[in-house]
């Protein structure tokens, strides 16, 4: 995911992050980088840096909000990694595109779709959505199911279909850290990380 830098750091660009979950369902930040602008070139560079550092991304499930250039970068650097799109961001983009927010009934139907573990259940939920709001159903039908619906996704994601983990990382980093100069940012990041690891081990 990306995070906007704050205050004086704003002029330095964008903070890129890659996060994961450990076996205890805890947040683990695998890498961060400051780049001038978020694009495919910088995502490719960042992913290659992670590979060089020994981070096993070559065959790992990726969940993202379809950030600028990230999909192409993933296809270039780790083509065997299945890429799932964040449902929360799909809904946000849809709201923006359609110029309205989903009703609670519509949202409930929409969030049943990515959890569908069979083609039959997906079709059943989509038919209900079609009868409730055909425009929303049509919008979602243009997104390949292999990238957002459980039954069509090649790997189990254990009900993880949003990139909320990365959003949690932004909160974990905090505004103060993202307002620091580059060197201080990295030192504070390492401090946060070591403190977090120590707290989990005690």
TrEMBL record:
Pfam families: MULE (PF10551). InterPro entries: MULE_transposase_dom. It comes from the Eukaryota. This is MULE transposase domain-containing protein. Residues 12-93 form the MULE transposase domain.
